Amino acid sequence: MRGGISGMIRRAGEALCEAVFPAVCECCGASLVRGEKLLCLQCQYDMPRTGCHRDSFSDIHKRIAAPGVPVERAAAMFHYVKESRYALLIQRAKYNDRPSIVRHLAGMFARELEAEHFFEGVDMLLPVPLHRRKLLRRGFNQSEEIAMAISTVTSIPVGDNLKSLPHSTQTRKNAMERAANMNGTICVTDPEELAGLHVLIVDDVITTGATLLAAAKAIRASSPTTRISVLTLAASKLLY
Ligand SMILES: [Zn+2]
What we know:
The protein is an alpha/beta fold. It is built from 10 helices and 6 strands, in the order αααβααβααβαβαβαβ. The strands form 2 sheets. A 4-stranded parallel sheet has the order 1-6-5-2, with helices on both faces. It has a two-stranded antiparallel sheet with strand order 3-4. Helix 4 crosses helix 5 and helix 5 packs parallel to helix 7 (about 140-155). The radius of gyration is 18 Å and the shape is globular. About 40% of the residues are buried. The chain binds zinc ion. The site of zinc ion has 8 residues, from helix 2. Zinc ion (ZN) binds near residues 25, 27, 40 and 42.
């Protein structure tokens, strides 16, 4: 089961904190009024949205374009500008043990995308995996938190078919690892499960796109009939 006991304890702790401390906007610090949650209306309004899911070959598609790895739909909620208050939301969730922040944002985004039929025909959400060492250190996988929040809105199941491999995987020994892409950072654990499905790979931030591409390549290499789309909460500007 995704989340498990530690996830339940974490959620209870977060809920307790939210009940005890006065609610302020995570972005600007203003007191929240009735009906606002996590972000004030002004910060929601000012959020630098990408709108890229309406583009059939967006900037996100370009970053992860590779021969033989077609990516159908791509969505990113907002532009990630380093040190901006919106970028700090992601940082705070990740490093200050506040996954409820990304869950809330993902829920908001999922409701919007659902209204625009973005999830139509998508069979499974696949969070980008976190390497076991990082998972132990952080206690949660941000991408998984995002995927679970999307699942709550859409009822699309969250799969655990992607596995992070050690980065120095030069000597690959088994079929599972051979299916990994050139970078060898991600592999598919059960290719048969993905056959014929349309999967949505989920991550928190796309920068160069290398991680999402590694995941897409691993899926395509092990299960050529799988259709692939991607979703991130944020997209950083590329420095060309
Ligand atoms: Zn605000």
